[in-house]
Amino acid sequence: MDTARILIMIATYALSIIMVVLTLPLLRGGARPDRARITEPVPGAGTATYEYPVQRPSAVVHIALGILFGGGILLLVLLSLPVVDDLRAAGVIAALALLSIGYGCYSLAAFRNCSLIDAPTLIAGTDWRGRAVQIPHQEIASFSATGQRSSVVQDQRGRKLRLNMNWFSAPNLALYLLRATAEGRFPGKRPGDQRELRRGLNRVQSALNFQCAEPLREVLLQGPAANPAVFRRDPAAPTGTGWTGPEYEAWVGAVTTIFWS
């Protein structure tokens, strides 16, 4: 075994141990509650505290973790055997081993720490490091898909909450974003254009892995963003807000009823 291969093997084992050691503190903590108490604003009544279920990654993640760590360990064992003579092959095996163990450590921390609370007026959760973020719906400044079945929601202060839609579901957030888009809060490049509104609704579907049924889409397309002349609005209110009147209340009721039906 030549010196270069020995150095590759030592570096790979050392980095693997470092990743595991750095992950261990993220796995500590007490029992994970199934429900959490959230304080929400109540129009005209200050605030109120409600209890909501806490979503966590499915236990199926254990299978993926076993595959990742098992594959990484096998690659580490293979790297130490004399059957691999080529230096380039040893480098590839080392890289694959580090990738498997590194992603396995990340997934293990995410499984232990990630959570989501999908409340009617806010979204709250913890990331893979256990850091908590709570974003009221009214403070959402942007949202976007970051990959297949993953998205990020950002508030007006720059705080971000990343959502893995393979693990979680967020119907309350979906309803808010669909309605807010149809009200013009996220106007896109051509405010008031129905085609732009259709693209906005598609962005919500893509970000939250949510399929908007055709009856719901039809009602959303009748909203203030595409038909501002039909609804009354406070001109001093921020963009896409301040809608009032019986027409608006009837439209909101129709959207809510169809969404939950």
UniProtKB/TrEMBL annotation:
* Transmembrane segment boundaries: 6-27, 59-81, 87-106
Q: Which domain of life is it from?
A: Bacteria
Kindly state which keywords UniProt assigns to this record, in alphabetical order: Membrane, Transmembrane, Transmembrane helix
Q: What is this protein called?
A: Uncharacterized protein
Q: Which organism is it from?
A: Actinomyces ruminicola
